[in-house]
Design brief:
This protein is an all-alpha fold. 84% of the residues lie in helices and 0% in strands. It has a domain at 35-68. The protein has one helix and no strands. The radius of gyration is 29 Å and the shape is rod-shaped.
């Protein structure tokens, strides 16, 4: 006995699925761009923080030498 099953998706469903996938891909790209901008800001903040920390250490070191 030979049994064959076929699955057909109505045309409207295919178009709807394709539109949904396209929307998801667009959102993914937008999120990647936002993550890239966020990473630049994180790196900028890290650089500023390191500079402030170095300045604070220098100030404390200088104050310690003057107190001695």
């Amino acid at each position: 006995m030979d049994q064959t099953a076929t699955l057909e998706t109505p045309t409207g469903d295919v178009a709807e699925l394709q539109a949904g996938i396209a929307q998801c891909l667009t959102e993914i790209e937008q999120l990647r761009e936002q993550m890239s901008r966020d990473q630049v800001e994180i790196e900028r903040s890290c650089t500023r923080t390191c500079a402030l920390l170095a300045e604070l250490k220098a100030t404390l070191s200088s104050a310690g030498r003057r107190a001695a």
